[in-house]
Amino acid sequence: MDYGTTAYDGIASGEDLTIKYTNGSGATLMTIEATGFLDASADATRFALPTTAAAFTPAANAALVLHMATGEIATGDSPLKVRVDYKIIDTAW
């Protein structure tokens, strides 16, 4: 998060930022605790890994979206910048 001038407000425990495939209804890949991150009053960084060790089927060419799992942010103006490391896997044998 690149802190702007106003911290995000309305962040409570259990209101998590998720990374999903396609849209807010898509499969959840990762969950990031928003408390202490989105409501910070300085630049903040989080490193996220998949939320489960269970196998999942990747969605080919699907968008990755940031989505608030619950709750609503009331105020704030800090942009979230995302860096994604990925690997293209050829599945043709």
Give a description of the structure:
By secondary structure, the chain is an all-beta fold. The protein has one domain. It contains no helices and 3 strands. It has strands at residues 16-21, 28-33, 64-68. Strands 2-1-3 form a 3-stranded antiparallel beta sheet, with no helix packed on it. It is elongated and about 50 Å long. The model has no long low-confidence stretch (mean pLDDT 86).
H/E element order: EEE
Beta-strand share of residues: 15-25%
Q: What helical percentage do the residues reach?
A: under 10%
Mean pLDDT: 86
Low-confidence stretches: none
Shape: elongated
**Major β-sheet annotation:** 3 strands, antiparallel
Q: How many structural domains in the coordinates?
A: 1
Numbering strands along the chain, what is their spatial order in the largest sheet? 2-1-3
What is the helix tally?
0
Indicate the topology.
Elements: E1 16-21, E2 28-33, E3 64-68
